[in-house]
Specification:
387 residues; alpha+beta; Nucleotidyltransferase, domain 5; three-stranded antiparallel β-sheet; globular; binds zinc ion
Length: 387
């Protein structure tokens, strides 16, 4: 990126941040006085502010109005969300002020604020960027978000209306259960996803960087040293690398699953389920979160049917007859043996099958039909038992 463009983006960001924070202050006051604080009022504030401050007029007015609209939207949403909450909890959801050194620059440009020409991105206010394209845009974009992430790299992400890319029907269903050792256990043996250990491989180095950061931490009121900043950057870089690896693994797997199946029954996993204390739990949580997101995205993109299944009791139910054991299976117990019908199956495979049954899909439509198993009788309601 040219230094002119960088300087242009940063001063644009400074102006937008000022306007955003001004909006925050107005909104807070208006809320306390139970006044309205919609886009029209904020627009008036902006007009007054630019008359008074010459430096605001140097920026693009299109972009500044966009900030007002973004703020008004975010505020309206927050106001809707906080209805019915306790007064002391209300402030949590409101748009927050953006601090200079804490907030990474983000600039949102809609239709009138940008244009693409000869592979270069022209932004309102005369900023021209050469873009390194990760892939070709399928259609003209409706908006673009220009942002700088924690490592100081700038990105432009374009919003393009999506169309579903239909894939040929396969006639197959799949049930998916998340876990620690295997990130995903499925009703199809060839689609199981072992935990990739991206976090563990990086853990040693991460611990080293974190110790280094702690050692170099400045005393209160002192500025951080160069070495401290470097150690912090190294930590952030490694975190980002692990996150990217996870996403890559998750996407590739999701693509395979979605390509091979018409209908998916997926455990609606909530993080922090596993991440109580251990590093392994946290890593598994992160891997599952990313993989689940990739799967949902991929299924939507290719027009596949996806059911999210409530995770309660999935390890206690029998996929064959629907009977529920009295006690939760201890984690070390790797096989599930049903006392009602005598079916024996690996624990996670049983859970994956329970997903299918609960989603109302046909377990026989799964890849592997257990020929020796007893016939499915008295199938349970796909309804969700409460905890
Ligand atoms: Zn059974």
């Amino acid at each position: 990126m040219s230094s002119t463009a960088r300087a242009g983006l940063l001063s644009e960001w400074a102006r937008c941040r000022w306007i955003w924070n001004e909006c925050c202050a107005r909104s807070k006051k208006a809320y306390a006085e139970e006044e309205k604080c919609g886009a029209a009022r904020l627009d008036k504030m902006l007009t007054e502010a630019s008359t008074a401050n010459a430096w605001l007029r140097e920026g693009s007015s299109v972009q500044q109005q966009q900030v007002i609209r973004d703020f008004a939207k975010s505020r309206a949403k927050a106001l809707k969300d906080i209805k019915g909450r306790l007064p002391q909890q209300r402030r949590a959801g409101m748009p927050k002020c953006k601090k200079k050194h804490a907030a990474d620059p983000t600039l949102n440009y809609t239709q009138s604020g940008f244009r693409l020409k000869d592979g270069r991105l022209h932004l309102a206010g005369g900023i021209v960027l050469s873009v390194v394209w990760s892939r070709e845009l399928p259609k003209p974009p409706s908006s673009v978000l220009v942002c700088r992430e924690s490592l100081g790299h700038w990105y432009a992400s374009f919003v393009v209306a999506t169309t579903t890319e239909e894939l040929p029907a396969t006639g197959r269903d799949i049930g998916i259960d998340w876990g620690v050792k295997e990130t995903a256990t499925t009703t199809s043996d060839i689609h199981d996803l072992p935990h990739a250990q991206h976090g563990r491989n990086a853990a040693q180095r991460l611990a080293c960087y974190q110790r280094r950061t702690a050692r170099r931490k400045p005393k209160r009121g002192q500025a951080g040293s160069k070495g401290y900043k470097e150690a912090k950057r190294q930590t952030a870089k490694l975190h980002k690398k692990v996150a990217r690896q996870r996403q890559d693994t998750g996407r590739k797997w999701a693509k395979r699953v979605v390509r091979d199946h018409d209908r998916l029954a997926v455990e609606d996993f909530r993080p922090k389920f596993l991440a109580k204390s251990t590093m392994a739990g946290k890593a598994a949580d992160a891997a599952i979160g990313v993989t689940k997101q990739a799967l949902i995205h991929m299924a939507r993109k290719h027009g596949r049917e996806l059911h999210l299944v409530h995770p309660a009791h999935t390890t206690m139910d029998c996929a064959q007859c629907g009977a529920r054991t009295k006690h939760a299976l201890p984690l070390l117990e790797r096989t599930y043996a049903c006392t009602a019908c005598g079916a024996v199956s690996p624990r996670d495979k049983n859970s994956a099958r329970v997903m299918l049954v609960r989603a109302g899909l046909n377990p026989a439509g799964a890849d592997r039909v257990r020929a020796a198993g007893p016939p499915v009788h008295g199938q349970r309601e796909p309804g969700i038992p409460s905890l």
